[in-house]
């Protein structure tokens, strides 16, 4: 498009106000740019010189004073009122071809043919008294005046023909691009606003699109998200989306409800993450994961950390696997958000000595405690804190030693490799404190190993050993 040939995607001075405000490119915007091109050619001034700085209206060149039809066509091309603009390139081309051409000499290129115009009368030369000598400077000035007058007569037809040719090319380009698109029979009907829908549904759909634009959410990805959610609820449809018929009105209502639900979740993301939805890649995730793996965490721990944080965006998911598209984009967004706030604090456990650590976990954040153990030892640990906290314990190789659940006291068997990784997540809306007690004990045969009791110094007051009562709160 003519609008997108300058730095940053918008050519200064040629873009309409809607494009400058950040709206998506539309075909009609090319017509506005062509109108600016015509004014630049007629005036010889850049667009910045043709706009009145006080009210941002266009200054019309003097060459248009005697051509009201051409000026009217250009005013429609440059109109700020959408109702006054041309509906298509062909309509603009027809209006320009109807503009009467001033008399000139020589052929003039038109969009569809070459026209030979009638010769114009020779310009009247300045009268000089007989016998009066004419200086060489006077002769050069007269010749320059004659050239400018002759050029002015030919300029307007050339400008009109050039703009008409550009309009014809623009219309052909739109036609080719539209014919080149492959229509997907299962594509969402929400990509357009069918006129056959009831007015209330059209208004509701338009409000949704406006909210997407205001929140800077990529429209195509969001519509696929809602479509996939609807098809997941109605697998018997075999991938067929609702149409705009009366029979599918209940399904369209479900679609609208799903759209509102997803939008309420997506708008909770920060702006920098919302604008990237639809553009996240596996490479973004691998870079985030690799940064934490380089600090000693296992990939499985990092992935579970993200899956736990993604529950608010992807409710009802079970397991730690990365979901398929388009839901995967939300999982990647959760990864960017969660891993940016995770804290890692390494702890060295000592044989037979109880170590107590207090820490704060930010709201919707997490902390990871890599715990290094002496050789030939096992770990006994207890965690106490907010009821909105969850804990998981992993081995050095990422094996799950204690599944995700409430804070509690656990006694782990002999660990072959260090460190053991304790993951604490806070699902609350405010920071919360936790107390971590841990001790490394010698490895003893299972038959002679004492069972944890309520008098164990690792157990907080009033708590019970793991397996005998619900977890600590």
Secondary-structure blueprint of this entry?
Elements: H1 17-20, H2 28-43, H3 47-50, H4 68-77, H5 89-97, E1 107-109, E2 114-116, H6 136-180, H7 199-215, H8 219-233, H9 249-266, H10 271-274, H11 282-293, H12 299-309, H13 328-340, E3 343-344, E4 347-348, E5 355-361, E6 366-372, E7 377-385, E8 389-394, E9 400-405, E10 409-414, E11 420-426, E12 432-442
Helix pairs in contact: 2-6, 5-6, 7-9, 8-9, 11-13, 12-13
Distance between the termini: 61 Å
Measured by DSSP, the beta-strand proportion falls in: 5-15%
The portion of residues assigned to helices is 25-40%
Shape: elongated
Q: What is the overall pLDDT average?
A: 75
In short:
By secondary structure, the chain is an alpha+beta fold. The chain has helices at residues 17-20, 28-43, 47-50, 68-77, 89-97, 136-180, 199-215, 219-233, 249-266, 271-274, 282-293, 299-309, 328-340, and strands at 107-109, 114-116, 343-344, 347-348, 355-361, 366-372, 377-385, 389-394, 400-405, 409-414, 420-426, 432-442.
Provide structural commentary.
The protein has 473 residues and is an alpha+beta fold. The chain folds into 4 domains: 2-125 and 135-180, no CATH class; 195-267; 282-340, no CATH class; 343-443, Jelly Rolls (Sandwich). It contains 13 helices and 12 strands. Strands 3, 4, 6, 8, 9 and 11 form a 6-stranded mixed beta sheet that branches. A 4-stranded antiparallel beta sheet has the order 5-12-7-10, with no helix packed on it. A hairpin with a 4-residue loop joins strand 1 (107-109) and strand 2. Helix 12 packs across helix 13 (328-340). The two termini are 61 Å apart.
């Amino acid at each position: 498009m003519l609008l997108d040939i300058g730095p940053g995607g918008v050519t200064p001075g040629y873009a309409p106000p809607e494009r400058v405000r950040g709206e998506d490119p539309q075909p009609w915007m090319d017509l506005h740019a062509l109108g600016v091109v015509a004014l630049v050619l007629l005036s010889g001034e850049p667009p910045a010189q043709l706009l009145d700085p006080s009210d941002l209206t266009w200054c019309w060149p003097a060459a248009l004073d005697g051509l009201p039809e051409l000026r009217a066509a250009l005013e429609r091309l440059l109109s700020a009122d959408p109702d006054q603009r041309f509906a298509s390139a062909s309509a603009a081309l027809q209006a320009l071809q109807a503009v009467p051409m001033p008399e000139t000499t020589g052929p003039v290129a038109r969009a569809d043919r070459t026209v030979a115009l009638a010769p114009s009368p020779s310009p009247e030369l300045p009268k000089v008294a007989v016998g009066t000598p004419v200086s060489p400077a006077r002769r050069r000035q007269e010749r320059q005046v004659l050239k400018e007058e002759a050029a002015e007569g030919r300029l307007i037809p050339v400008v009109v023909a050039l703009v008409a040719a550009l309009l014809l090319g623009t219309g052909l380009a739109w036609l080719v691009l539209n014919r080149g698109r492959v229509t997907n029979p299962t594509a969402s009907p929400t990509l357009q606003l069918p006129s056959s829908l009831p007015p209330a549904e059209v208004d509701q759909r338009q409000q949704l699109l406006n909210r997407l634009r205001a929140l800077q959410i990529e429209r195509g990805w969001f519509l696929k998200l809602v479509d996939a959610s609807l098809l997941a609820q109605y697998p018997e449809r075999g991938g067929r989306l609702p149409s705009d018929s009366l029979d599918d009105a209940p399904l369209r209502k479900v679609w609208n409800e799903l759209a509102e639900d997803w939008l309420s979740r997506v708008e909770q993301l920060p702006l920098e993450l919302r604008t990237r939805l639809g553009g996240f890649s596996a490479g973004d995730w691998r870079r985030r994961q690799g940064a934490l793996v380089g600090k000693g965490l296992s990939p499985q721990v990092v992935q579970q950390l993200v899956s736990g944080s993604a529950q608010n965006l992807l409710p009802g998911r079970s397991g730690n696997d990365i979901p398929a598209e388009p839901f995967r984009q939300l999982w990647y967004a959760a990864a960017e958000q969660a891993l940016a706030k995770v804290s890692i604090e390494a702890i060295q456990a000592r044989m037979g000595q109880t170590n107590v650590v207090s820490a704060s976990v930010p709201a919707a954040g997490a902390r990871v405690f890599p715990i290094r153990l002496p050789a030939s030892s096992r770990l006994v640990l207890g965690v106490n804190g907010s009821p909105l906290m969850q804990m998981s314990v992993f081995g050095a190789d990422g094996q799950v030693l204690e599944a995700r659940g409430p804070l509690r006291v656990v006694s782990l068997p002999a660990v072959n490799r260090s460190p053991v990784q304790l993951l604490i997540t806070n699902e609350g809306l405010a920071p919360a404190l936790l107390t971590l007690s841990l001790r490394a004990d010698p490895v003893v045969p299972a038959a002679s190993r004492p069972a944890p009791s309520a008098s164990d110094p690792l157990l907080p007051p009033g708590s019970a050993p793991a397996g005998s009562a619900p977890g600590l709160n």
